Amino acid sequence: MSKNVIIVGPPRSGTSLTAAVFAKKGYYVGAIESAAMRDGDDNNPYGYFEADELIARNVGILERGGFSFHNTWRHEPITADVIERLAVMPPSNEERAFVQACGAHRPWMWKDPRLCFTLPVWARAIDPRTTVIVVVRRATEDIYRSFQRMGWCEDGAMARRRTVERIELHARHAEDSAKAAGMPHVCVDYADYLAKALEVAERLGELCGLRLVAEDLNVQPALSHSSARGRFSARLRRSLDRGALRSLKALRPMVPRKLLSALFPEKKYQSLPK
Fold first, then answer.
1. Mean of all residue pLDDT scores within the chain
2. What is the pTM of this model?
3. What is the span of the domain harbouring residue 235?
4. Beta strand pairing status for 109-111 and 131-137?
5. Are 215 and 263 part of one and the same domain?
6. 170 and 116 part of one domain
7. Would you place residue 261 in the very low, low, confident or very high pLDDT band (cuts 50, 70, 90)?
8. Share in percent of the chain as helix, strand, coil (round to 5)
């Protein structure tokens, strides 16, 4: 049987793209009530693959560790003492029961950026013989630009520094937690999904017991905001949403849909009424 997969990485690093590979192979993801999280939106056109109960469990683990916010990237930064507590904190009976419930649907797949910090707790409840970890890396600057496009950070040098520190903290602990978990793991770079698709597919397949080819990664170059076109699209969209060009948004119905799709390839213009 194929191995269960835990996908770990900072938000906006490519974890959803990675999760889609396994979801399309029939991996159990869990219940997702939000249509945007399940089916995707303009920011993640193919879905997020973050199950409601997994998110709730991770929020609960963070709370037990002393972190009172819903996520670790848009609120106050997680502190070193909370991270230290999570590193030694045992899983609760409810968390062990959740792992067992997922086991009835093998192979299952977990994906949630909070796992960068909660993975040490889960690792004490998961059989390392049945589960592997995929750590997703992405250039900090590319993640920062995506944070900007999402409206998750303010402008200015000081705000940029805080955001970059937050991103790097997630990335560092994603790798550290994976190494300490006692489960087989690989690190994959977001850039390699485009540059080395076959190599990435083979590495993931070998780790998980799947037969994967480059096409299984379903990489869409037009959706990459790391390219020159992507950076232009992100700047234009940000200016229209929150910048100097906001007044022009009212003209959108008069713009041909082909042009809109070329400028903003991630937007689901095919679902708009004709």
1. 87
2. 0.83
3. 227-269
4. unpaired
5. no
6. yes
7. low
8. 55, 10, 40
